[in-house]
Amino acid sequence: MKIGLLTSGGDCPGLNAVIRGAVLKGVISHTTEFVGFRWGWRGVVERDLMPITRHDVRGLARQGGTILGSSRTNPFEGEGGGPENIQRMLDEEGIDAIIAIGGEGTLTAARRLYDEGGIKVIGVPKTIDNDLLATDYSFGFDTAVEIATEAIDRLRTTADSHGRCMVLEVMGRHVGWIALHSGMAGGAHAILIPEQPQSIEQICEWVESVRERGRAPLVVVAEGFTLPDMTEAHSHKGLDAFNRPRLGGIAEMLAPMIEERTGIESRATVLGHIQRGGEPTAYDRVLATRLGMAAVEAVYDESWGNMVTLRGTEIKTVSIAEATGSLNTVPQSRYDEARILFG
C-alpha cells in the first residue's frame, strides 16, 4: 500500500504531528509506503511529490507548520486538475489512496473528488476556528486559544498603564470559539463573535462600565463579527482560491468608533497569523497524532469519502459530507455564560 499525504488550506500547529502519526502507524503496523504532495492540492495537480520515511518524521510532533507546505489550491482547476487527471496521476505513481489534512475547503474538495471521480481519499479535519460540526475539537484550536490568551494577558498590562481600551482581533470567520475561550480565560470585558451581532452602543456601554470601575477595558473580537448594520464581515484583502473573502480589520474599525463615542483612547491589535505559528500545545500534539494514526486505519478499512473525528475522547470515522454540511457554531447558552462577565 502506498499512501499520499497532503496538507492544504491555512496552516496550523499540529499538522506535522498528523504526518508523524500517520507514517509511524503505517510503517509499524502495515509496512506502508508514504509520499507527500508538496503545497497541498497544488502538489496533486502539478505532480509535485516527495518520499516520506520514518526517519523524516523523527521528532516532528513538536514542530509547528508543515514539512509538506500548504496552499489554497482548488484541485478541480488547472491542466492537471479534475478527478480524471488526478486518478491518472495516482495510477502512474502507484499511489493507492490520499489522506487530505485540511479544513472545510480542503475536505469539501476531497469529498467532491470521491463523489465525482471515485478518488480514494480520507480526510483529517484541521481548523483553528474549531468550526467543523462533526468533530468535538480540531487540532490547532487549543494552541490558538493559548496564543490569544497570552496576548490578552500582555495587552492588559499596557492598557492599565495608560488607561486605554484595547481591542484584540482573533481569527474566526464564521464562528467565535477562539474569541470565546481566550476572552473568558483572559478576563475580557466584552467578547464579540459572528454568531452574536452587537450594536456599537452596547459595546460602548460595556466599555464605559469598565472605566467607571477604574479599569482599562479590553475587548476581544472575532474577525467575522459584524455590527447589526453590516451585511457581511469586514474584508478589504480580496478573495482566496475558494472565492471566500480574506477577512481581517474589524478591530481597526471598532477602536476609533469606541474612542469617538466614549472619549477613551482606544487601540486595535490584530493577531492574524501569529495564531497559526509556533509549537503546538501538548493537547494538540496528542490529538493530531491520534487522528493521523486513525486516518491510516481508515485507509485500510477502505472508508473512502470519510474523515476521522473526535467524539468525546474517542476517534471515530464520519462522512465528510456530514462534517462540511453545517458549522459548529457557539450555542446561545455558551455566549450567555460569557456575557455575565462583560462590562
Automatic annotation (TrEMBL):
Top EC class of this enzyme: transferase
Entry binding sites for ATP: G10, R72, T73, G103, E104, G105, T106
Positions of substrate binding: T127, I128, D129, R164, M171, G172, R173, E223, R267, H273, I274, Q275, R276
Residues that, per the record, bind Mg(2+): E104
Keywords: ATP-binding, Cytoplasm, Glycolysis, Kinase, Magnesium, Metal-binding, Nucleotide-binding, Transferase
Assigned GO CC terms: 6-phosphofructokinase complex
Catalytic residues identified in the record: D129
Pathway: Carbohydrate degradation; glycolysis; D-glyceraldehyde 3-phosphate and glycerone phosphate from D-glucose: step 3/4
Subcellular location, principal: cytoplasm
Reactions catalysed according to its record: beta-D-fructose 6-phosphate + ATP = beta-D-fructose 1,6-bisphosphate + ADP + H(+)
Cofactors demanded by this protein: Mg(2+)
SUPFAM superfamilies: Phosphofructokinase (SSF53784)
EC identifiers of the protein: 2.7.1.11
Domain annotation Phosphofructokinase: ranges: 2-299
Subunit composition and interactions: Homodimer or homotetramer.
Family annotation (HAMAP family): Phosphofructokinase_III
Function: Catalyzes the phosphorylation of D-fructose 6-phosphate to fructose 1,6-bisphosphate by ATP, the first committing step of glycolysis.
Protein name: ATP-dependent 6-phosphofructokinase
